[in-house]
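for the writeup, i need someone to sanity check this before i put it in the appendix. the sequnce is what the collaborator sent (i think, or maybe the updated version? ugh). structure was predicted straight from it, no edits. if anything looks off just tell me and ill rerun, i have time this weekend
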Amino acid sequence: MKIVLHCKNKLGFVLGTCRKEMYDVSLHELWDRCNAIVLEWIMNTVSPSLISTIIYASNAYKVWEDLRERFEKVNASRACYLHKEIATLIQGVSSVSVYFSRLRELWDDYETLDPSPSCGCPESRQHAEYYRVQKLYQFLSGLHKSYENAKNQILMIRPLPNINQAYVMIVNVESQMKTGGGNTSGVGTEIGEHAALLSNRGASRGGYRPRNNYGNGKVPPYCEYFKFKGHTKDSCYTQHGYPVDFKYKRKDEDLTTMPTM
């Protein structure tokens, strides 16, 4: 709302810097017209349940102050909820961009309730740097474990990159994993075994397809996660997800049933 009012050169009507008594009587009618425009914008913006409390108002500044006093207070419950959401958010099966966008949305919402100091004093700069590093840690901590090696490489960079730089590096890793490339040049190293597992032909179609690591007289591997012989924990469909083109042995077979390797 402030952005719109500023663009229309009407912000002074709600901040109290453009009062009617400040102008000559000949300009009062023009002032009343601009004031009415601002009141209309406010009424069209607020929730319909609040219209009845401001519809008879005649001064945009008084309406703005009344709304500010009622709704600008820091909501501790909301801040606590956002703090929990930020701390527990993980990537899961989402893409890196979706996960990062959700995290940025929560950060922005939280900062409206608890804004950081904006002055240029040493204490403010120290606080801003601390907050920047915390954002980086939160972003990296919530990534899928297939980015573990890439995350470790980012944390070894000195000075630590900012959140946007780290995002670009991880997206570069994600792109190479999808296209079958094992070299993660975005962070200067290879991502290791997970890149090899996800960069096979099956992964290019959005699925997770493990290798057959036994045969020729070798002892079949054992999955500690699914308690099943024939594959390892790193290549377990149940833990990492089924390929898009996977076909079950029976139509009614549940996702919890492990396929024959």
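The beta strands are 183-184, 189-190, 222-223, 228-229. The chain is about 50% helix and 5% strand.
thx in advance!!
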